[in-house]
Amino acid sequence: MLRMVLCATLLVRRGAGVAMRTVASQAKRKNAPAQAQGVFEALDREARPTVRLLDLTEGAPVPYARCTDLQTRLVDECIGGARDALVLVEHPHVYTLGRGATHEHVLFDAEAPGAPELHRAERGGDVTYHGPGQLVAYPILNLHNYKRDSHWYLRALEEVVVRACAKVGASGAGRAPKHTGVWLAGHKVAAAGVAMRKWVTYHGISLNYAVEMERYQAIVPCGLDPVIEPVGSLDRHLGRPIDLRGELVPAVLEAFADVFECELQRREPPEGVV
Prior knowledge:
The protein is α/β, with parallel strands linked by helices. It is built from four helices and twelve strands. The two termini are 30 Å apart.
């Protein structure tokens, strides 16, 4: 299974303070950051598989654990021969740790009363935040139907976001040579963390469009120095509100269908999900 470790800084605690220092040599670091390997190449095929679309953005944010259960169910179905699926969703405020990540970059006591919600996820990567103002895409895809290449898949997810950003006016969005995700004017606006089982993907990529930026102060996002490689949001870059339902979701869906060369077919979510 693909393992992504996106840490680019070491967090050093001195007394009550927190100091960050950038690692000079990735090669000497115990947990060196994953390089953004591979390139996106179009599939260029005639057959376009049908992908079930579960758009959960119409209602209230869906709890993270409930969406994790949904992904598990969809992965099992896909392994059993069902059609691929794409879940679009927003979550209530929550922090998640990748499967190999430690609490080093979590700046709050997760065991303290009233602490923010924190979940261990099966995805790769470090710690990140999900919440209102962030669109999350969870593709459940059997890569036998696309390309059995985990690096290609990550680049394809990034390509979806790059194209979607361009459609809403943020044409400067692109990739960084040493990190996964999508960047805009030096700010990381999209974070990717994936997992696979029998070449069926789950987890995915998140895009900040109107997120509460102060929520990131509780963590070192993706292990990256927030001064050198800060997190950003589309609304701040464009200087205007982003219409989730009328603007961003259609842009993401069009980009996804183009990149993965598929047909999206809307389906009602299973009972109890929303």
